[in-house]
Design brief:
Elements (H helix, E strand, L loop, with lengths): L17 E4 L1 E2 L18 E2 L2 H14 L5 E5 L8 H14 L5 E6 L1 H5 L3 H9 L2 E9 L3 H6 L6 H13 L3 E8 L7 H14 L4 E6 L4 H11 L8 H14 L6 E4 L10 E4 L3 H13 L13
Parallel strand pairs: 1-4, 4-5, 5-6, 6-7, 7-8, 8-9
Antiparallel strand pairs: 2-3, 9-10
Helix pairs in contact: 1-2, 2-4, 6-7, 7-9, 9-10
């Protein structure tokens, strides 16, 4: 029986899929707003142990057709290691249609387009990338380990290789003082290198992350309330004009206003829904059901 090394995290859309822990923790683990892997030391799991997990999982779920490779950024593994994992998954799961994983911008930039394309052809079809912000200043303050330029380069490389990208941005990361810069930069990145899917999260700091976040932010930080977040969301939607379609969602449980549509086609409709919420004509998600 396969056992997970806890805590275990995965994107909401992977909740019904098979999860295989190719790595433990996050190889970067420096983002100040994130406390997901602070209790773990990064480890690339030995292939023999990993292959045993795959075989155990295949016995329990032989018709699994989607697999998520955990933990924080499995794409950090060498390309030949990932190819071996993908080969073993295909050999054990005859109905396998898609493998996905988290990836950092640095993970993507350390692999060539040819390497990424080979992984795509071997079954890795989707990567989840945290843009968080497109503002270079905000990225530096949250210790993301990326710049606006490197973010665009990484997203563009994934697209060139034929990988689908599900990207997230975090509303509220600029606080009340830098929110406009945060949103304008984020729109620039998305317009320059549109992901397949774009989702918003609303900033929520776990208690054990607050002190580090504030200490490393490098300036006073005043958190946005829901009214401020709605201003951010409205501006982001109004500025997004991607050259190819982007599936947009703000339905993650952290968001105060769930939205869904395709950009740029549905931009005016989505902006109108935000306007309604700002007028009090559309309800916000109750705080007691919000979470990460």
């Amino acid at each position: 029986m396969m056992l997970y090394d806890m805590p275990l995290y995965r994107p909401p859309s992977e909740g019904q899929n098979l999860i295989i822990q190719a790595t433990l923790g996050c190889s970067f683990n420096g983002c100040t707003f994130c406390s997901m892997y602070k209790s773990k030391q990064f480890l690339a799991r030995p292939l023999d142990v990993l292959f045993a997990d795959i075989e155990d999982a295949a016995r329990d779920w032989p018709d699994a057709h989607r697999v998520f490779l955990a933990d924080g950024d499995a794409l950090v593994l060498p390309t030949d290691t990932l190819m071996a994992i993908l080969d073993r998954l295909r050999a054990n799961l005859p109905d396998l249609a898609r493998v996905s994983c988290y990836a950092t911008p640095t993970n993507l930039l350390r692999k060539s387009v040819d390497e990424l394309r080979a992984l795509r052809d071997a079954g890795l079809r989707l990567v989840y990338v945290g843009i968080e912000s497109g503002s270079g200043d905000i990225l530096r303050r949250i210790r993301k380990g990326a710049t606006e330029k490197s973010m665009v380069q990484a997203l563009s490389r994934a697209a060139e290789a034929g990988l689908k990208v599900s990207a997230t941005v975090v509303l509220g990361l600029g606080g009340r003082d830098r929110w406009r810069e945060h949103i304008e930069g984020t729109a620039r990145v998305v317009n320059a290198a549109p992901p397949t899917y774009l989702s918003t999260l609303q900033l929520h700091l776990e208690p054990d992350a607050v002190d580090e976040f504030l200490a490393k932010y490098g300036a006073p930080f005043a958190a946005q309330d829901d009214a401020g977040v709605l201003e951010e969301l409205r501006l982001l939607l109004s500025l997004l004009d991607p050259p190819r379609p982007v599936i947009f969602r703000s339905n993650h449980a952290s968001n105060c206003l769930p939205l869904a549509g395709n950009l740029p086609r549905d931009r005016d409709r989505l902006v109108a829904l935000v306007d309604m919420a700002q007028r009090g004509a559309a309800p916000l998600r109750p705080r007691w059901i919000r979470g990460l």
